[in-house]
C-alpha cells in the first residue's frame, strides 16, 4: 500500500510540475513498500539514481518557470533546491557505507515532500495562476 496518495490540493496548476511531483511521490512510495517487505537493498540504489535524474530535470524546470513569472521567492527556492541536491548525494554515500539506513532516507524524502512540495511550492501557485491570465 502506498504511503502518500496524490490529492488535488497538491496540484500547482502546471501539468509538467504536477507530473514531476507525482513521480517524486512514486519514489517515496516505492521505498516505503520496499521497507515494508524488507527488500530495501534492491531498491535504494535505483531510487537514488532516479532522484538524481529527477532533481536535475525538475529543479531546472521549476526554477526556469519561476524566473519567467518573476516569482519573488525564487532565491529561497534555489537555496532549498541546493540543499536537497547535496543531501541526496550525501545519502547515496551514507546508506552505502552503513552510516544511514533506508528508513533515514525515507524520512528525508517524506519531509522533503511535506516541507517543500506540499508547503513551499504551494506558495507560488497564486503567481502561476495569475501569470496564466
Give a short synopsis of this structure.
77% of the residues lie in helices and 0% in strands. It contains 5 helices and no strands.
Question: Main traits of this protein?
Answer:
Four Helix Bundle (Hemerythrin (Met), subunit A); 0% strand; mainly alpha; single chain; 5 helices; 133 residues; globular
Walk me through the structure:
The protein has 133 residues and is mostly helical. The protein has five helices and no strands. The mean pLDDT is 90.
**What's the SSE pattern?**
HHHHH
Reported by name, the CATH topology is Four Helix Bundle (Hemerythrin (Met), subunit A)
Query: Residue-averaged pLDDT, rounded?
Result: 90
- Percent strand equals under 5%
Helical fraction equals over 70%
Instruction: Tell me the number of strands.
Output: 0
CATH superfamily: Hemerythrin-like
Largest sheet: none
Number of domains: 1
Q: Count the helices. How many?
A: 5
Structural class by helix and strand composition: mainly alpha
Distance between the termini: 39 Å
